[in-house]
Amino acid sequence: MLKGRVWKFGDDVDTDVIIPAKYLRSVDQTVWPKHVLEGLDPSFSLKVKLGDIIVAGKNFGCGSSREQAALAIKWAGVAAVIAESFARIFFRNAINNGLPLIECRGISKLVEEGEVIAVDLDRGEVRTNNGMLRSVPLPPFLQEIVNSGGLVEYYKARKKVH
After folding, report:
1. Whole-angstrom Cα distance, residue 86 to residue 136?
2. H helix intervals, 111-150
3. Is residue 33 helix, strand or coil?
4. Which of 5, 52, 111, 149 is the most buried (most CB within 10 A)?
C-alpha cells in the first residue's frame, strides 16, 4: 500500500519537460531530481517530498525514449505515478527502473493537488478524498520487478536463487 501527497499534471506530459535534454549529460544522481518537471513547474523539485505521488492525465511520458525521465522522477522521491494512460516506452522504462506506474481512468478529474491518496497495487485500487477508483493492476511479475528496485536488481536476485 502506497500513501502520498498528490502533485497533479495534465495530458501529454512529455519526457522533455520531465527532464530537459540539457541535463542529460550528467549521470550524477543529484542533478536530475533538481530539475525534474521544471518545464511545467520550475519549483517542483523544491516542493516534492519522499513518498509523494504524481497524478496526470492521458499519455504521460510521451516524447523521446529517454529512460532518464523515469529515473529523475524516482530519484526525486516520488513513490508512484498514476495517470489516465502512459506512453508505452515510458511505461517500460519506469517499470525497468523500479518506478511504480498505475493506469487509472478518471483519476485526473477525481483528485486535487495536495490531497493524500492511498494506492493498493495488489488490488488495483486508488482511494481518494472523493471515493475509490479501480486501476489496472500491475501483473505480479511486473510488481516483482518494481519491488526489486528495477529489472537489473530483479535479475540479480533471481541469479542468486538459481
Report:
1. 12
2. 140-148
3. helix
4. 111
The pLDDT tens digits along the chain (162 residues) read: 899 999 999 999 999 999 999 998 887 888 999 999 999 999 999 999 999 999 999 999 999 888 999 999 999 999 999 999 999 999 999 999 999 999 999 999 999 999 999 999 888 999 999 999 999 888 999 999 999 999 999 999 888 766
CA–CA separation, 2 and 21 (whole Å): 30
- The phi and psi torsions of 68 (rounded to 5 degrees) equal -60, -25
Q: Which domains does the chain have, with CATH numbers?
A: 2-161 (3.20.19.10)
Pairing status of strand 101-103 against strand 116-120: unpaired
